Amino acid sequence: MVRTPLGCSSRIYRISKRILDLTICIALLPFVVPVIALCSLALWIENPGPILFCQQRTGWRGRRFKMFKLRTMVVNAEQLKQELRHLNELSWPDFKISKDPRVTKVGRFLRKTSLDELPQIFNVLIGEMSLVGPRPTSFAAQTYDLWHTERLEVLPGITGLWQVSGRSDVDFDDRLRLDIEYIQRRSFWFDITLLFRTVSAVIHPKGAY
To answer: What's the pLDDT score for residue 201?
Structure first.
């Protein structure tokens, strides 16, 4: 069962968290939309094709949804994934290659600055994600072990405890332990703290997030 800190009403917390998500996202829209447009133009000039990468992710209670990102790889990246599986640095179904040959030059810059994540502001507005929470996985809940499923009791987030921990090359189980720590400690002020730490991590990156 998901726990919230003593003295913190679960209902009040959920409402205040949703208000925080909407307030920040709506306030940022006038700035985010032009940046997304400029990034999209740069991506299309280097590698013409769809600009948005809409991938099925696992969210609250195991429900699948389309998460939006700016495309940072070549158009046929998913087809090349199987061919490059032998270079995977994490445990399957996680997939990571440090110098992934599928990533474009513009895409590499967007990843380093986390600009490729900006379209997820629309996932937050829709209510499929929150600003803070466990990152949604591309693999379905059916592949989870039983203890993994605790992370499905909260909305997935754009950022979270793992992203600000400075640990970028960790397997799913290690990330999950940080997700569970977040779930057990979560509160309105803890979410705000993680948002400020995320801004600091983006301005002063220590690795890939």
So the answer is: 79
pLDDT in tens, 109-123: 998 888 999 999 999
Nearest alpha carbon to residue 137 among 56, 73, 81, 53: 56
Positive/negative CA dihedral, 163, 184, 58, 127: negative
* Parent domain of 101: 14-201
CA distances from 195 to 61, 105, 132, 189 (A): 24, 28, 7, 10
- Residue 144: its pLDDT value, please? 86
Greatest mean pLDDT among 88-92, 95-99, 166-170, 183-187: 183-187
Quick check: is 3 in a domain?
A: no
Judge residue 44's burial from the number of C-beta atoms within 10 Å of its C-beta, 0-12 exposed, 13-18 middle, 19 or more buried: middle
Q: What is the pLDDT of residue 89?
A: 58
Q: How many structural domains is the chain composed of? A: 1
Q: Helix, strand or coil for residue 8?
A: coil
Structure tokens that stand for 34 in this block? 């032009």
Residue 209 belongs to a domain: no
Q: Per the confidence metrics, is the pTM higher than 0.90?
A: no
Q: How far is the C-alpha of 90 from the C-alpha of 92, rounded, in Å?
A: 6
Residue 147 inside a domain? The answer is yes
- The backbone torsions φ and ψ at residue 132, rounded to the nearest 5 degrees and listed phi first, read -125, 130
Measured distance CA(149)–CA(180) in Å, rounded? 10
- Is residue 208 very low, low, confident or very high in pLDDT (cuts 50, 70, 90)? very low
Please indicate, yes or no, if residue 206 is contained in any of the structural domains: no
